[in-house]
Amino acid sequence: MKSKKLASLIILLALTMSFAGCFTLRVGGKAELAPSTEEGTKIAEKRCWYMLWGLVPISDNSTDSLIPATVKKVRVETKITIMDGLINFFTLLVTIETFSVQIYEVK
Which pTM value belongs to this model? Predict the structure, then answer.
């Protein structure tokens, strides 16, 4: 009986931690940031990796290298894609998570 309670507590803790995160994305570059309501053309995408459920970035979490100097206005979206969900399913217990960043050029 005690082992069932412990297993339930561990599963509850893992699920709770999977929905809580401290992900930080540094949005940079010389382009102006557009509102989320404006449509655009996707020009770049990358996956950001984090440890300790988003507390420590283990990959470059900046958009500086993604935005070309010729672009005047951009919109940045962060999302957890299906691939991110699959990766997170297998790496959650070792506290590693990912999410995707998409950069759109807005005219």
Answer: 0.73
pLDDT in tens, 93-105: 888 889 999 999 9
Residue-range domain boundaries for the chain: 2-105
| 107 vs 74: CA distance, rounded Å | 8
Q: Which residues pair with 44 in a beta bridge?
A: 103
Cβ–Cβ < 8 Å for 97, 50: yes
List strands edge to edge, sheet with 32-33.
32-33, 73-79, 97-105, 41-51, 56-57
If one counts every other C-beta atom within 10 angstroms of the C-beta of residue 86, the result is 11
- Beta bridge partner(s), residue 48: 99
Residues of the chain with pLDDT under 70: 1, 15-21
Backbone dihedral angles phi then psi of residue 18, each to the nearest 5 degrees: -70, -25
Picking from 39, 41, 44, 47, the residue whose alpha carbon sits closest to that of residue 29 is 44
Residue 47: its H or E element = strand 41-51
Q: CA separation (Å) from 8 to 1, 4, 5, 28, 77?
A: 11, 6, 5, 43, 35
